[in-house]
Design brief:
About 45% of the residues lie in helices and about 15% in strands. It has 13 helices and 11 strands. The chain has a 6-stranded mixed sheet with strand order 2-1-3-10-4-11, sandwiched between helices. Strands 7-6-8-5-9 form a 5-stranded mixed sheet. The chain is globular and about 75 Å long.
């Protein structure tokens, strides 16, 4: 009887490669066919804010590239948790995406003692969209200052008399103000809103005195209704090269930039994530998208899904430390 020879090392490697290729075929086939129906983008903040504007700037060209409608829906609340929870519980097929600030993944786990989903497991990074800067702005009718140093002196001379707005507790504009208060030992009253747009309306109306604006009010700076004093970023804004950073007026390592981007339901096939990342990055590099981001002072941020996920981990560490130090709680 002839003995059966077992495959050698080379044969085993060949069999393993063939098996892996066979396993990858369904995912590749899915990605090639994807999408076959409309894609929904769930925005975690109300209409008019940075997340909403970015989602709508991406949706139309992405729809053209993919050959299917890309529909934007707003599900605001709980600093992004409502939208995040919704997307986390959808089928893991890439047809429902979350557009949010990095706060949903990097900040909320530090803000809330209990969450209905685990952002690190139930969501998967797909693509960054833009680095959103925050701009320190005042209502000039309420705060008679001309620059950031004068503003800090005015805040010191009026302890507890000034108020500032934000899109909500734990939002990046709120945390920017907490960074400022922590470093200067100054106090102002925080007024949380359900989104940046209503906060901006009250800044314009004089109901609040100042705000770290995620870019939506820059048109009012240009018209003179608001005064821009400083940028809460490590570097000056390309759109406002004459406006100093807060580091330049005496604060240290001030970085309140937020990375907005797209997430899918955890378990979405890697091939689908890769296809979405590729097509979204093409949109981010387009002159039309760059122009729309310039209008809100944001910087397009094309990168891999892996790099976007790593960015969230870095932000989680630094914002987590601030939240604990300032004892900040979610709504």
């Amino acid at each position: 009887m002839k003995a059966t020879r077992s495959p050698g090392a080379t044969g085993r490697r060949t069999l393993l490669a063939a098996a892996l290729a066979a396993c990858a075929l369904p995912g590749l086939a899915l990605a090639q066919a994807f999408p076959t129906k409309p894609i929904r983008v769930i925005v975690s903040f109300p209409p008019g804010g940075a997340a909403d504007q970015i989602a709508r700037a991406v949706s139309e060209p992405l729809s053209q590239a993919l050959g299917q409608p890309v529909i934007v829906e707003n599900r605001a609340g709980a600093n992004g948790n409502i939208a995040g929870d919704y997307v986390a519980k959808q089928p893991a097929d890439g047809y429902t995406l979350l557009m949010s600030s990095g706060g949903t993944v990097a900040i909320n786990p530090h803000l809330y003692s209990k969450m209905s989903f685990d952002p690190t497991k139930d969501l998967v990074p797909v693509a960054a969209a833009a680095r959103v800067l925050v701009f320190l702005e005042v209502n000039p009718q309420k705060v008679p200052v001309n620059d950031a140093k004068q503003f800090l002196a005015y805040l010191k001379a009026n302890p507890g008399k000034l108020s500032y707005g934000s899109p909500g507790n734990g939002s990046s504009p709120h945390l920017a103000a907490e960074m400022l208060k922590s470093q200067t030992n100054l106090f102002a009253t925080h007024i949380p809103y359900r989104g940046a747009a209503p906060a901006m309306q009250d800044l314009l109306g004089g109901q609040i005195d100042f705000m770290f604006d995620p870019g939506i009010g820059l048109q009012h700076v240009k018209s003179g209704k608001l005064k821009l004093l400083a940028v809460g970023s490590p570097k000056r804004s390309p759109q406002f090269p004459d406006v100093p950073t807060l580091d330049e007026v005496g604060l240290k390592n001030f970085d309140a930039d937020t990375w907005f981007g797209f997430y899918a339901t955890g378990g979405t096939p890697a091939a689908v994530v890769s296809k979405l990342n590729t097509e979204i990055n093409k949109v981010l590099r387009s002159p039309a998208f760059v122009e729309r981001m310039n209008a809100i002072g944001a910087i397009p941020a094309p990168m891999s899904a892996q790099d976007f996920g790593a960015r969230a981990q870095i932000d989680s560490i630094r914002y987590g430390a601030l939240i604990r130090a300032r004892n900040i709680k979610g709504d």
